[in-house]
Design goal:
The protein is mostly helical. It has one domain. Helix content is 57%, strand content 8%. The chain contains 5 helices and 2 strands, in the order H-H-H-E-E-H-H. It has a two-stranded antiparallel sheet. Strand 1 and strand 2 form a beta hairpin. Helix 2 crosses helix 3 and helix 3 runs antiparallel to helix 5. The protein is globular and about 55 Å long. The protein starts with a helix and ends in an 11-residue tail after the last helix.
Length: 133
């Protein structure tokens, strides 16, 4: 694995994922980054490797949010807060339905969300280049 829980908490300063669940989400995130980079992410070093690690951490957090949302849609797990106000306290929950989770549009939107994180982090590293070098 490229990222461990120590890196996540101490360098990335992540707090959203607990240690018990970290490997699950970081493995999924690493697979997605390897997919997006045509398996080039694990060959990096130096500053590019640090950027890859940050990307994996952010995607891991996003996977946790997605999984909670999917569990909620299936009637499992806790509610996912989509917005919250402080004055006269107000909370809105993201509530996809079971039908939403099982559509190709949902999968496409999920992948777009994850890929946008990859692009944000790796756009200027050369890892997303698909041409011949």
């Amino acid at each position: 694995m490229i990222v461990d829980f120590t890196y996540y908490t101490e360098v990335f300063e992540g707090t959203a994922i607990n240690e018990e669940n970290f490997n699950h989400y970081s493995k999924k995130a690493e697979r997605f980054v390897n997919y997006a980079t045509c398996n080039q992410a694990h060959k990096t070093s130096g500053n590019v490797l640090e950027t890859v690690k940050e990307c994996i951490c952010e995607i891991a957090e996003q996977y946790q949010i997605i999984e909670k949302s999917e569990k909620q849609a299936l009637g499992e797990g806790e509610k996912v807060i989509s917005s919250e106000s402080v004055g006269s306290w107000s909370v809105s929950y993201d509530t996809p339905t079971k039908a939403d989770v099982n559509t190709s549009e949902y999968t496409t939107e999920k992948n777009k969300r994850l890929y946008s994180i990859v692009k944000e982090h790796l756009a200027f590293t050369g890892l997303l280049y698909r041409g011949v070098s």
